[in-house]
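Good morning C.,

I know you're traveling, so I'll keep this short. The sequence:
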Amino acid sequence: MFRPRFVPASNHAQLPQWKDTWTRVLPALTLWILSVILRYGYYGNCSMVLGPSSSRLMKASSVFVQQVQVRDENWKGALVYVFSEKPELSNKVNWNFSNYLIVGAYARKGYSLWLNKGSRIRIRWATQPSRLDKIELIIIKGEKKRETLLPEQTVPFGALFLNEPVTGKEADYNIEEDDKYSVGLINSNPRSIIVTFSLNVTSKVYDVTKASDMCSTLNGSCRLQLQFPLTQYVIVSTPDNGDIAGRYVELSFVARVVTYIAVL
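The tokens, ready to paste straight into the viewer:
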């Protein structure tokens, strides 16, 4: 008796179907990967902490980036510059800040700044003599990989606060790398205290006299086109308006879509 046999389809017969499917999916997948890299990778959005008289440098390839957009949520007038050649970190700006800080029990309070290599910070803090030993100054470098800086020297001093004698300390720091720096005081006392806190900063900033274009966020977000196909340098800077808190600026790189289409 004849029994029919079922012969499995040849793998070779299925290959053209897989090739056709892969050919259709690959361009879309590649474009999606590139868009994700552009959105979240090297040329993604960058939320920056700056500070008075800050000057932060970034590098972008105009082959892949058509435009930079900068938005200052607080409308405090960040300035954006574009260069065809890397500018020099050759200028210095001095600024000061002084205030009373109320630091809660077992709490930390301070400020965040962007500082370039070669900058210097001098910090003074003072309070009642009986509580000074439980006040610690700390400077943390970086965001992802954090590192605590050590001062060059710490010097005690005496002063008057609300007509009462207080004692304080003074510390000097040299900045050896461009980065974000968080400056703050830690209170190990069991109650809140008032501390006189002052900063004296000598900030190294970039020379912007050779910028090819610039814009300001004083009246809202600003946009600058990047000249194709050169590598461009972008500097975001802030004026010294005495405001040390809340200097957050968002920078976005807008893709040059033609380049990514050509890649596909």
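Safe travels,
E.
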